Amino acid sequence: MGFAEPMRAHLPQHISQLQTPCLIVDTSKMTRNVARATGRLTGSDTKLRPHLKTVKSVDAISFTFSGRKIPATVSTLKEASEFGSAGYRDLLYAVAVSPQKLQQVHALRRTGVDLKIVVDSISAAHAVANSAAAEADPLPVLIELDVDGHRSGIGREDAGLLVQIGTILNNSAAELAGVITHAGESYGTVTDDGRAQAALIEQQVSVELAQTLRGANLPCPIVSIGSTPTLFSNAPVDGVTEIRAGVYMFFDLVQAGIGVCTEDDIALSVLATVIGHQQHKNWIITDAGWMALSTDRGTSSQQRDQGYGVVCDETGRPFEDLIVVRANQEHGIIARRPGTELAEIPDLPLGTRLRILPNHACATAAQHASYNVVDTGGNITAVWPRFGGW
User: Fold this and answer.
1) What is the CATH number of the domain that holds 354?
2) Which of 32, 73, 228, 258 could serve as a FRET partner for 140 with CA atoms 20 to 30 Å apart?
């Protein structure tokens, strides 16, 4: 205590004192986003199992859920370890497990973490069954479904394979816990109706295949679906036990581009400083390149290409049609959006502070070691460490 307390006086108290580039979180927006997500399922038997892969910060999740040790989703065993150590015991590792990682899974479960895993093949089911027997550990296993041809999982046309996998798991030392899917193609929808249709297919196929397992006298207590776009739809959730979503806590330009949120809902930004100009090119140069913003160009296929990020003033108010058009490792090049009528750029002198809204919150956050938490007045109320790794 004697060492730590004097150091507090030297910590930045306001956004204007921060070294750039760095991450900024607006907690008023984050709180509003979380309330919107939880409100979506009010009155329903379906529960929200938040995905923690975007945030990767125990402090951030503790703030977000008022210290409650909520059931949650993780995408890496590092996340399972960090959040498990912090008291989050009901965790779902929502990536198909490889045999080499099963020993780590067992080790985490021996610490008291109820870690559930995912498989989508007969070979994976056999590996899990053998490992569960060898370790005398009744691993809870969900079978991954493919509802839209997006990535991995068992489709409705392979119901026989689903039953085979379920039978292997049910007749083993492991525990067949249910089914899981992710409607990844929902990220390509651009209308409310499109998202609702993607969510409806996700719900219908998942419930149908859960019934297929039950019809074969196999247990299927968990029906886990989810993505941020389908969470924020009006599709029914009958028969679904839980919905997973994660980026909704921050939101980003991809989500804004498909109409799930507005730019004003985006709680995450990168603080940058103007370090130069190329006036003959109408360029402004900042110290936030792809090492700070990431190389994610998720809006490039959308109707409104946001470059490497939307440029805002220090308070978070966007400039009209001003984006990061190019990004080198440590340099971000700001210019008018191509095709806009406004040829001149704002007068932003050397040293001007800017906030840049990210295309993909997960990728941008991964470039940084901590979040600087600010209120609406730009006062720094906390610094949340974040972790990386697998």
Assistant:
1) 2.40.37.20
2) 228
